[in-house]
Structure formats: structure tokens, C-alpha cells
Amino acid sequence: MAKILAVDDSVSMRGMVAFTLRGAGHEVAEAENGQLALDVARGSSFDLVLADVNMPVMDGIAMVRELRAMDAYKGVPILMLTTESHTEKKMEGKAAGATGWLVKPFDPEQLLATVKRVLG
Amino acid sequence: MAAVDLTQFHKTFFEESLEGLDAMEAALLALDSGSTDHELVHTIFRAAHSIKGGAATFGFADVAAFTHVAESLLEEVRSERRAVDGALIDLLLRSVDCLRAMLARSSSGQPAADADSEALRGELVRLVSGAAAPAPVVAAPEAAAVGGWDIRFVALPHLLQTGNDPLRLFRELGQLGRLEVRRAFVLDSAPARLAELDPGQCHLGWELRLHGAVARGDVDAVFEWLDGDCELAIEALAGEAPAAVAAPAAVAAPAAALAPAPASVATVPAAREATATAASGEGSSIRVGIDKVDALIDMMGELVITQSMLSDIGENFQPAQLERLREGLLQLERNTRELQESVMRIRMLPIGSVFNRFPRLVRDLERKLGKQVRLELHGEHTELDKTVLEKIGDPLVHLVRNAIDHGLELPAQRKAAGKPETGTLRLNAYHEGGNIVVQISDDGAGLNRAAIVAKAQQRGLLGAGQEPSDAEVAELIFQPGFSTAAQATDLSGRGVGMDVVRRNVRDLGGSVGVRSEAGKGSVFTIALPLTLAIIDGLVTAVGHERYIVPLTSIVESLRLDAAAVRRIAGGGEVFQFRGEYLPLMRLHRAFDCADAITEIERGIVVVIEDDSRRVGLLVDELLGQQQAVIKSLEKHYQRVQGVSGATILSDGSVALIVDVGGVVRLGQRSKAA
């Protein structure tokens, strides 16, 4: 089972993601913005990071850029949770180093399928 | 794994969405008052965006659809394709109101959209450039797969740095059909010497063949995230299998997308019931800062230490340890009090959440009344008990409304009076003693003394020719149904007067008063108890019963001679106290207690005060001071006149808490009668 960092400023979304992943046996840490996520990431190691794009303090894209600059997170999969269906945000995320994305709204099954896809 | 029940997140979703709307409203108002802070636009956008995402995730399609259009409009603002003007802010503020209503309906299980919300959504849609909202993305029908695919996949050097892994891709392809790696090759970009090889760089390419009736879309999906990270060529393999085989797979996707609909319909009644009960419980959850929880845990730790120290003494007690025991008990008392304070603090919330409604209200009133108002908020972080906070909103709204409607003058009048055209309305909250004080002050015209006196005389509250003091004039406005006709507008004609404000504040155990100076303005002051749930009280005995009198209301306790008490017409009794006659209430008579002391000189009279009106209560004796945790009588029994609640005493017996305001009013009536 994997260690996953879930980053989202929305308590309900984060709760849903964390609950679903924990239910599948994963260990989940939560952070409510990119800045906090970086702090958490520095103090621990994760197999996967799931991050919202639009967040106060530090958005998901800046967070990905910072994470990729850290040695420990060079190759760790990072998925953006994004509502924008247009390619713009996805490409911005990718350029920053994101592995892929999951388009909101997603249901718990879709979330687990995507996580499984990344973690194997 | 069992399906995840998303309804458990609905309440959180509603709470955070309402918070988001509050933030959105505040930011819109800040923009309206001329701020050009770009972060405001981001805040507004983010709020709409989060609500949309959550609404879609948790199945509130109407809310999602509405926010979607609002978000598109905001996106135009954010990308500076649309300028912010008053009309746009009006529209967005109306959208905020509309979304609040939609969320309220959703949370009580009703359909979120109604005619109003649809009309407003239409307005937003028309405004968004290109008019039409983007059509839902419908997957193009898949071309039927052929017998398989030849895939040439060449990684760009940075591919690994995005966290993507060619092995994962192969695994996924292998799940679609039989995967054959026909050739793997090293690219020219690879360094010639092993020592120069960077493990973070990928210099490999593959020629793959995927056998089987696989839809092209499924293959594309595997490489979906790799756009820009690789060179990819996918070609159909000449017909190994009939193309038709792939078709059902392609059709399966839309079918699956439709499938949840009936299922979710089936769960609706249950969910509806759940949210309905939650709604009737008035969302009895509370968000608590982590520091408060930490304080509680600290306190708990100390309590455990004290407990172990005491049990240590108790295990093997010797009289010599009496001093240590006493110390331990003192420590226990301190711990208990601190723990109690920490627990009470959990119920405390900043008054800012109530203050935050005022910028909007003030803006609306400014427009409606043609006045100019600058709103100042102070002490937003002052904390109040949650229950007090929930109930103080309406009285405050009324006072703010009054201040703008009646207090502040029109710009021209202000100019004529030598004042700045823009009036100032100040809301201030602060601690004072055991109270929270909330002040609403304006620099308007002050109370209209002439109009109030005339009205009072007309209503028979004042005799003709009587010249009341300023304090008496101020008191008059709190009289039931008192509203000066000269001032009545559509705002004040709501049937809610200052008497209702005073009653609401009194119900919370507080008081309200006003100071006013002609031409300078008025200050309304509301004093509220820190918390409703605990009071410091004086335990009194009346017969076999125990009554608790709130300490803050006690002026003095005294013994009276029977001769000092006079009977007045109508059967009431009065006694002289500091130069004034106070009604005497025999508690045993008021509450019908058996075996109580009836001779005045044998009992004790406790003088209590509410709003500078006093009454003496005759009780048998005073048993001492105690903190009382208030239990609602209404909840467990029914409302009883003169009693504000009950509590359990340290010996386990039940005592009733005297409702000071009610008893004083009762006493004053008997005196008047």
C-alpha cells in the first residue's frame, strides 16, 4: 500500500479523496495548500502526490515546480486534480512537471482506478 | 471495496461553500469600493471554482451548472478580457445570493434550481462572450479497432522527470491486449560514456505491437499524459480480427456513464431524509481551531497528573499527609476550572462572521437611501458563544439599518451641517469585565428628541409639558411599538422595533442602551454575557427548594424589619432601599414553595437589578456561591415564568436558576399595579 499526499483547499474534496484512499488501504497525509504540502513533503516521503490546481497561498502548479526541484521528488508521480477540461491548465501543470491529471468531477472508483494506474 | 458513501461529505461541502460565498461577497464589495488588488479577483474566482468542483463531485448538478457559468464570466475578468464595473458587481452579488439560496435548498433535499436561479443563470450565459455555455464533452464515437496496433514510442529525455514511467505504460498496454516489444533502441542523444549518463534522463525508444481488438481511444488513453514528453506514432495493424468486435467495448463507455443515474435516483429518498434531519438540527457542528484543542489536551494531561497524585495519597493515607491532600484538591479545583474554561472556549467563535454581513447590507442601503456611508469594523476577532453569535445577528442588523436609515443624514444635509458628506458607521466589539460589548455608533444627527417626545406624549407615555432627561428620551425608544411617524420609511416599517431588539438581547442575558448627542450621532451599546452555558450564581434556599440567583445581577443582600415593608394598593409589597421603593417578591409565593420562611425578618432579601430596575427577592437563607452549568428547562420540561434554566448542584440535587429579567419585570408590574 502506498503513502499518498492529498493537497486541496476544499475540505470536502480533500476529505473525499483521503477517505476513499484510506478505504483502499493507503496511508494518506493531507495539506490545504501548496505551501503546506511542500512542508509536509519535506518532512516525509510519498509514493504519489494528488494536488488541486486552484489553491490560495500556493497553487498546485507552483507546488509541482517546487516539488520537482527537490531531489526526493524528482521521479515521484504527481497528479493534478483539475476541473478545467480545457488543455491549458493541464499543459501548464505538465510543463511544471506533473505526471498527469484527473478531471473533476470524479467519483471514488475513478480516483482509485487512476491511482492504481499510476502505482501499478 | 464497498462503494464510498459521499453523503458524509455533503455537510462539509455546504459549510465550505457558504464560507466561499462569504469570501466572494467580501471581495466583490472590496472591488466595488475601488480596490484594484488582483488577489481579490483570484479569491472570487477560486471560490466559484471550488463550489463548482465540489457541487459536481457531490452530485449537485444545478449548483454546478450555475457556478459553471459564473466561473466562465469570472475567468474573463481574471484574464482581463472583461472590465469590472458596478453592473458586473451587482450581477455577481446577486449570483452570490442566488447560490446561497440554491445551497440552502440542496441541503434540505429540495431541487436547487428554481425560476429565479434559472433566470439569473440565463443572464450570466448571455453576458459570457460567445453566449453558449460549452457543450458537455461527448466522446467522439470510437473508430472500430483493427486487429492491433503498431506503436513507435520514443521517450524525450525529460520523460522520467514528470514521474511517468515507460514500464507503467507497457503494463497498461499489456492489460489491453498482448504486447510484443519488437525493438528497443538507444537514442543518439544518449551520452557516449556511461559515466556521463544521468539517471534522470531517458534516451530510449521502443517499437511495440499490441495484438487484439483494442479501440484506438484506449491506446491513446494510455499515452494521454505524455503529450510533449515523447514522440508517438500509432498505426493500425492490418485486420487480424473482425473490426466489429471492438464496437461493444466502445459503446460500453457511454453506457457506463449513464448507468449511475438510476442508482443515484434510488438513493435520493434516504439521502433527503438524512439531510432534512441534519438541517432541522441547525447544523450543530462547530469548527474549532487546533490551538483550542491543544489547550484542552494540555489541560487533560494536568488533570491526569493531579488525579494520580491524589490516588497516590489515597492509597496509603496518613493524617500527616492532610496538607498534601489539601494541596492536591486545590490543584484539582484549578485544573477543573481551567478545563472548564478551555471547553467553553470551544464554543466561542469570532464575531467577525456576523460583522461580515454588514458591508453588503450597508452597500444595499446606501443605494436605496441615497446616502454615503463608510463602514468601520473593529474587534472582529472578539469571540462570542456560538449560540449568542447566532442570535445576535438580527438585533445588530436592525441597529445598523436604523443607524443608516434614521441616524445618518443625506449628503446634502450633512454638507449643510458642516460635516463630511460621507457618514461613518462604526461597529466595535470588545471585552469588558465578564461581558462582550458590541457598539454601533454613527456620526449622524442623533436621536430626534422633539419627534420622540411628541410621539411619547401622543401615546400617553409622557404628560404634556413634561421635559424628560436625555436618558429618559433614550429609554423611550425601547418602548413596545414605539416608532416616530416622522421617521417611518419602508425600512423601518417592518414591524420590528427597538423593543424587539431589546427583548432579543435580554433573552441572551444581555442588555442594550443608547447614548445620543444632537447633531453628533448616536452610540448603541449591547452588553452580552461571555457564555450562556455557565453562570456564577448565589445558591439560595426557599423551603426545600434551591434557587440560583446570577451573581452579576445581585446588588446587595440584607435583612429587613417587617416594619420596613409596606403594602401598596393591589396587594404588592415595597421596601425602601437607598432612597427608592423597590417591589418585594416573596420567592416562596412566586414559585409556590412549601415550608418556606414567611416572616420577613427571619429571611433574607436579595436585591437584584436588571437594566437599572431593581427588585428584592425574599429567600430563607443564602447557601453560598457556586458556578452553575445551565440546563435548558424548555428542552427537558417546559418554559417556566421567572426561571431561566436549571442546574445540578454538587450534592446531586436540582436547583432552578432565577430569570432576573423576567422576575424584575414581574416585580415592576406588581409595583405598578
End-to-end separation of chain A: 11 Å
Q: Which bin fits the share of residues in helices of chain A? A: 40-55%
Low-confidence stretches of chain A: none
What proportion of the residues of chain A form beta strands (DSSP E)?
15-25%
Rounded to an integer, what's the Rg of chain B over CA atoms?
A: 36 Å
Mean pLDDT of chain A: 89
Numbering strands along the chain, what is their spatial order in the largest sheet of chain A?
2-1-3-4-5
Which two chains form the greatest contact, residue counts included? A-B, 40 and 41 residues
Helix/strand/pairing class of chain A, anyone? alpha/beta
Which geometry of chain B do the CA atoms define?
extended
Characterize the structure shown.
The complex is a heterodimer of chains A (120) and B (673). Chain A is of the alpha/beta class. Helices cover 45% and strands 20% of the residues of chain A. In chain A, helix 2 (34-43) packs parallel to helix 3 (60-68). In chain A, 48% of the residues are buried. Helix content of chain B is 43%, strand content 22%. In chain B, the strands form five sheets. A six-stranded mixed sheet of chain B has the order 14-18-19-17-16-15. In chain B, strands 6-8-9-11-10 form a five-stranded mixed sheet. A five-stranded mixed sheet of chain B has the order 20-12-13-22-21. In chain B, helix 2 (38-57) runs antiparallel to helix 3 (61-78). Residues 131-142, 240-282 and 485-495 of chain B have low confidence and may be disordered.
